[in-house]
Amino acid sequence: MKYTYGLLFLFIFCTSGKGQTKADLPKDNIKSETKDVITSLGPNDITRTIKQDRKGNIWIAAFDGIFRYDGKSFTNITSKVSSARFFSVLEDRKGNLWFGSIGSGVYYYDGKSFQNFTTREGLVNNEIGCIYQDKTGNIWFGANGGVSRYDGKFFRNYMMNGDSMSEDRTGKTFPDGTRPPNEVTSIIEDKTGKFLFGTRGNTFVYDGKTFTVFTHNGKPFSNVRSIIEDKKGNIWLGGIDGLWRYDGSTLTNLAENFVGYIYEDKNGNIWTSSVRSINSSPANHASSRNWVLSRYEAKSLSNKEPTVTEIKPQVGMLFGILEAYDGSIWVGGVDGVHRG
What Cα–Cα distance (Å) separates residue 124 from each residue in 114, 120, 153, 163, 215? Predict the structure, then answer.
């Protein structure tokens, strides 16, 4: 691997079917948004996900709320709505927002009011780590123990059972406070229409009927934290076993160190947040000062040793990555959000 070392100046802004449960979106407001809390500072706590909407607003899911940045100031839009720790954000095709939390399920936000979906409405679990919208418009919620698919009216749940995964047709959900051993960390639909689910256990491929375990050299590909499909249709997987690229037939390992998040920018470069040392125990990641942002140059990705630029912000554990419309790079950390 060819490494170069770059500088990034980070500005810290903190210091009706069987097995389906009906949960219609409201015709009337369920919970109106109260007065926003506007601040010059962003989140002060662990920041997991950063997304930019079609209007240019940046949405930040953090343990101290959902923040919206309009280019001038931050607004904590959930400060009067929920005290939940937020993990994930999705803007759907209609421009509505979905926020996944740890312990309080999912919040739907239409720009004026909120609706909260939990296990009472049929969500598989109230701990939601990732959200994804597929090509047909269904929204998938990755949870501890399984996945919920929402079509606008009904939840359909899929659960992990040991090393396997299957649809649940009984309407079962995990009770409040229940934390199954595995969680779904990433969901994508690839160019062939198949779904990939990264989990703390096995990685699963779902063709709409059957779940199969994604394997490498006859062994399950496990403990994956992030999966994306790039512009060329390659699948990228990152986790305990490093960074991998799958071209549909061959898996190629590009890094052995732990990779927590993968992102492709507008130029086709691949970014990762990772631990530089392969000897760093996952148990020590939170306190590690050895986390780096790595940029794999697009023009070199087909090489056996692509060119990698490493950026060491020295802020501890790193999470989600975003390239904003203005070209700035944003990254979530343990103490808020950083921009370079």
Answer: 20, 9, 15, 18, 26
Q: How far is CA 182 from the centre of its chain?
A: 16
Fold for 2-15+21-339, please state it: Methylamine Dehydrogenase; Chain H (2.130.10)
pLDDT of 278 > 80? The answer is no
What is this structure's pTM? 0.89
Q: What is the mean pLDDT of residues 89-100?
A: 98
Q: What residue ranges do the domains of the chain occupy?
A: 2-15+21-339
The per-residue pLDDT for range 18-32, each reduced to its tens digit, is 467 666 665 434 454
